[in-house]
Write a structure and sequence with these properties.
With 289 residues, the chain is α+β, with helices and mostly antiparallel strands. Strand 2 and strand 3 form a beta hairpin. 22% of the residues lie in helices and 30% in strands. The strands form three sheets. The protein has a seven-stranded antiparallel β-sheet. A six-stranded antiparallel β-sheet has the order 5-6-8-9-13-14, covered by helices on one side. A two-stranded parallel ribbon has the order 7-15. The chain is globular. The longest helix is centred in the middle third of the chain and has 19 residues.
């Protein structure tokens, strides 16, 4: 399966340590997930994507990109292919307008249910599905639901609407594919649907059976004496609808001062345009395999 990383902060920050130099970074994990990588980041509210079919550990471009990217919002992905050929079109993240999406999962019997899933995609979006993965279709199903209640060109969607859209989309997908699975050592013949998506100012993740960890604070901030954005909540667990300075998602706990929590299966966590933290969950039963 693939591995995910997402970063949203009030501070324009570099992510080299989180992607390359700390323990359990995507760079190191790419030994077991060698089928391509991608990094998406926002400059002047516009998403920029760099993707490759090479293994991140062996690709000098990955290290170069990781060293120069500085942004308020970053999503990165390393791929271990389960559906779709090993091509650049199938590398994550995927983009439509301001929206970026990266997926860690699988759809069981994808070829048999592909047409039914495509029928859930808004007609106007179908021509933008360029690859052959289940992940890209999932992305456009979510965007199809979002389009019903929001102008996609507006990046500042509310947490309430985004949570509603994710729940509707996941339920609709499950009506086609069946129950989701949860396993710490997943197999690529079952259903998993974990993902991260962002419009720039908004970022959200869903644990659809593949491990995701979230972080909004540090146990002790090493820069508290020099950081102009330091606040007491930088070293405290967040309350719902309270502001945070950063939100990080990762498939693995990354070494350092960050305090990580394991997201529960079915849990939705994110921040809105004002960096207000939100959390919800879906009332669904996961099959343990």
């Amino acid at each position: 399966m693939c591995r995910l990383f997402g970063f949203r902060s009030i501070i324009n920050s570099q992510v080299h340590s989180s992607l390359v130099s700390a323990d359990n970074t995507l760079h190191d994990l790419s030994q077991k997930h060698p089928d391509g990588w991608g990094v998406a980041y926002y400059i002047e509210q516009t998403p920029h994507l760099i993707k490759s079919t090479d293994c991140a550990m062996e690709d000098q471009l990955f290290q170069k990109v990781s060293g120069v990217v500085s942004s308020h919002t970053v999503i990165a992905h390393i791929r271990k292919a389960t559906q779709g050929s090993h091509t650049i079109l199938n590398s994550h993240p995927f983009q439509y307008g301001k929206w970026i999406f990266a997926h860690n999962g699988n759809i069981k019997n994808f070829k048999a249910v592909k047409d039914k899933l495509l029928s859930l995609v808004d007609h106007d979006f179908k021509r933008f599905i360029l690859g052959t993965t289940d992940s890209e279709i999932i992305f456009f199903i979510i965007l199809s639901h979002l389009k019903k209640g929001h102008t996609l060109a507006d990046a500042e969607v509310t947490s309430e609407l985004l949570t509603k859209v994710i729940k509707e989309s996941v339920n609709e997908i499950m009506n086609v594919i069946g129950d989701l699975n949860h396993n710490n050592t997943p197999v690529d013949t079952e259903n998993y649907l974990s993902f991260i998506m962002s419009s720039g100012p908004v970022m959200v993740a869903f644990n659809g059976g593949q491990d995701l960890f979230a972080c909004t604070y540090k146990n002790e901030c090493p820069e508290k004496e020099t950081c102009g954005s330091y606040a007491p909540y930088c070293e405290a667990a967040p309350d719902a609808s309270k502001k945070v300075n950063h939100l990080i998602f990762s498939s693995e706990v990354i070494s350092g001062p960050n305090a990580w929590i394991r997201m529960n299966p079915g849990e939705i966590i994110g921040v809105d345009k004002d960096m207000k933290y939100f959390k919800d969950s879906m009332d669904i039963t996961f099959v343990k395999t």
